[in-house]
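--- STAGE predict ---
source: upstream dedup step, 1 unique chain passed
mode: sequence only
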Amino acid sequence: MNFCRKCVVVALLLSCAPFVSAAAELPSYLRDRGIGMRTSMFGSYVEKGQLIVYPFYEHYHDNNQQYSPDEYGVSSTTDYEAHYRANEGILFASYGITSRMNIEMEAAVISATFEKDPTDATGTPAKIKESGLGDVEGQVTYRWLEEGEHRPELYSFFEAVIPHAKDKALIGTEDWEFAFATGGARGFSFGTVVASIGVEYTKASETPWDLGEWELGYLRRLNPGWRVYAGIEGAATDEVSLITEAQRRLSSVATLKMNLGLGLTSNTTDFAPEVGVMFTLPTGR
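--- STAGE serialize ---
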């Protein structure tokens, strides 16, 4: 109980800590996001010389995860729908190398449960539980053009996912996965619009090249303490999710992020809430 009380006190102190908003000093088109570069975390940006550290938790709840028994060693390619649940702890970090380039890394630990479709009469295991290391990936983002009064910001990013735990069907990554995308952002009086589209290469797939992830989003700073994001993201055309997020600035270095992903198509996770505190630290560079 004493520990819980201490946590509450620390949270209250952080939420009451004074901070200075630089938004009023920026051009109106940068009001929502500032001068930082995009990261893969929705509505989050890193400036030159800044280090972002973001530990967060995410839950996955899906009642119609598509699978075929051959993914689990059974000779059948018929599609079924499984119940899937997972809890994931993720550590994300990003560093602004210059005002045009940043790098990021992400690693996760995950516990996942799979329950096969009741209509699946093949030898697929009725229930599978796996836990351990989740995705390990990195990105490099380059900003080609900074936003001006009459032009949008343009950027590209390259992503790589490292293979690991190839014997674990639920949480492993069978082989290297790569992605390249280009996007942009434009600030308006009603908020900032962001969009990107890319291609991906999955070495283990029968069709390695495919349309990659895409995003169409809206970001708005409501006041110095609150910022909101809403957007649609997908992979190809049959995996589409609605993403909503509220960000509460706790202090000059800490921001509470509360995110919710809702699947809009059958191939996406039905329900995926996320919560964490993002720390933005100057490195003195």
